[in-house]
Design goal:
Radius of gyration: 33 Å
Helix content: 40-55%
Largest sheet: 5 strands, mixed
Number of helices: 22
Structural class: alpha+beta
Strand content: 5-15%
Shape: globular
Strand order of the largest sheet: 5-4-8-6-7
Length: about 550
């Protein structure tokens, strides 16, 4: 003791605080002359009531509180005299730790912060006899789903959340602050319920709480509130990745690590797509439908010849439409080519450096514009496009969602490549008509195209069910996803029929798109009958209504 506290002086009794690790080894000791601070004590008691936990002592010195947070919060308050020995101190501490281990579940203890650094001062009076303080009360989760311990007489600024499951049974009770994020509430709830955060949907009244919002922003400001926790079944993509975890193929096993985050990524893709989706009326105000259709027709032919990836066409059209939607006046005809080349330039830069290395993308641009535009003028136009778009590019398109839907097609026997090519054909037809392209979210547009392809190819009903099953992962706020997909499917099939028959203006461009998808590598999907496909849809829809 004298070696640990040389400043105390032999034979002089003093108070000291000792922090002991879980294995009983002393981490540090602090001795000081303390004076009472009633206001600090009250603030400390208030903080403890907020988080539903009680420290071993409400009278911490700053150094011990720092160490408490560092080593896990096992705190022992003792009284040292000149006759005290370190060995006896450790033995007593081990006894106390063993008692705590029997009374609480330490391996599931919450890491909620009880004391904040620099907030409190010790208030123990000199000469006070104190062996061990009262054992700390730690938030823990028992097998029955015991909730966080809460103080019923807590601060009025706190919120007591009662969480119920779908059966109405209580899952847990959490004491939170109005400024706590919904994502933080989910993390605390996951320790109680044992479910992953991305599988939880918290509902307050008829509102699905958003992770990035606080409880106050979600309308929860009362002292007591009841939430319903709905466990969302993981998407088919997540389940497929999880199955690969035991694969002998290292590449597949590594891919399984994405199973826990893929659903969150899918949802954020939809959020970004919706945030950037332009209105069709704004697009046609800046560029005439005829000029826009001619540009897309040129891109369909040119990009197919230079073997651009299919996603490039959709990304470039989206960038062009977003730029046009932000213009306050019509785009000049003489500037259209420069803006188009600027969009192509941006998308090549966003692609892999191995696919478009430096020097190659410059040659591609010169080839596409036949040398009529200098690289400097293209880069200047690119800067203007990026500035108007707020430098937000790389937005997910309908092809992004279509490829994710196609990941599950090989599970029930349908030819995934053929279904994907037919759905892609319908999506490229939709590019010509802004009202079809932007009237619904792109995830619904992709789902409608895939649903139509599956119906044309006579896929089993399980495929349609799996397709609709994953949609709530993307857009949980969308009601009646099945009806939305069916409406979009009918719109795409009617658009296909009218383009092929030449009854609308886009029929003049249909021949080039039909030629692109009539090769064997694309399974000749453009040669299928749109009339027969629409009849099959109407028959299936009528049969479902009769049921």
């Amino acid at each position: 003791a004298n070696r640990l506290f040389p400043t105390l002086g032999k034979g002089n009794a003093a108070q000291a605080m000792v922090a002991i690790r879980g294995d009983g080894v002393p981490c540090a000791s602090v001795a000081a002359d303390w004076t009472p601070d009633v206001e600090s004590m009250r603030r400390h008691e208030k903080k403890c009531s907020i988080y539903g936990a009680t420290c071993s002592s409400h009278y911490f010195c700053e150094a011990q509180r720092r160490l408490c947070a560092h080593v896990g919060g096992i705190n022992v308050r003792v009284s040292l005299t000149a006759d005290s020995t370190l060995k006896s101190l450790e033995e007593d501490a081990n006894v106390e730790i063993a008692q705590q281990s029997r009374s609480v579940c330490l391996d599931q203890q919450s890491s909620e912060l009880v004391c904040n650094e620099g907030e409190f001062k010790p208030t123990v009076e000199p000469g006070q006899d104190a062996a061990f303080g009262p054992p700390p009360t730690w938030p823990c989760a028992a097998a029955t789903g015991v909730m966080d311990q809460v103080n019923s007489q807590g601060d009025p600024d706190t919120v007591r959340l009662k969480i119920l499951n779908m059966r109405g049974a209580e899952v847990g009770v959490l004491q939170c602050l109005p400024g706590d994020a919904v994502s933080d509430v989910k993390r605390r709830l996951s320790r109680i319920a044992g479910t992953h955060c991305h599988e939880q949907r918290l509902v307050y009244g008829n509102l699905v709480l958003k992770d990035r919002e606080t409880l106050r922003a979600s309308g929860i400001t009362q002292a007591h509130a009841t939430l319903q926790c709905i466990k969302v079944w993981p998407s088919g993509v997540a389940r497929k990745l999880e199955v690969q975890r035991q694969s002998q193929d290292p590449n597949k096993a590594i891919g399984a690590s994405l199973a826990e985050v893929v659903d969150s990524v899918m949802h954020q893709e939809h959020v970004q797509s919706e945030r950037a989706r332009p209105r069709a009326s704004d697009v046609v105000m800046a560029i005439t439908p005829q000029h826009r259709g001619e540009l897309i027709n040129w891109m369909v032919q040119s990009f197919n010849l230079i073997r651009f990836d299919d996603s490039m066409l959709h990304s470039i059209v989206l960038t062009l439409d977003r730029y046009c939607a932000r213009l306050s006046m019509p785009l000049e005809v003489t500037a259209i080519q420069a803006v188009l080349m600027a969009a192509v330039c941006t998308e090549m830069k966003l692609a892999s450096a191995n696919e478009y290395p430096s020097g190659h993308w410059q040659r591609v641009l010169a080839h596409l514009c036949h040398g009529r535009l200098s690289l400097a003028s293209i880069l200047k136009a690119e800067f203007d496009v990026l500035r108007r778009l707020g430098f937000v590019v790389g937005i997910p398109t309908a092809v992004t969602f279509l490829r994710e839907f196609a990941m599950r097609l090989d599970e029930t026997g349908v030819d995934s490549n053929q279904a994907f090519q037919l759905a892609l054909f319908l999506l490229e037809l939709a590019l010509f008509e802004p009202e079809v392209q932007y009237v619904q979210p792109h995830v619904i547009l992709a789902a409608g195209a895939m649903s139509a392809a599956l119906r044309v190819l006579n896929a089993p009903p399980a495929q349609h069910e799996a397709l609709v099953e994953d949609l709530p992962i993307y857009c949980p706020d969308l009601h009646s996803t099945t009806d939305a997909v069916l409406d979009c499917e009918e719109t795409l099939l009617n658009h296909w029929l009218m383009c092929s028959a030449g009854t609308i203006s886009w029929g003049q461009f249909y021949a080039h798109l039909e030629n692109k998808f009539s090769c064997s590598t694309r399974y000749n999907v453009s040669r299928l009958s749109p009339h027969a496909s629409l009849e099959r849809f109407n028959h299936a829809h009528t049969r479902s209504l009769l049921k």
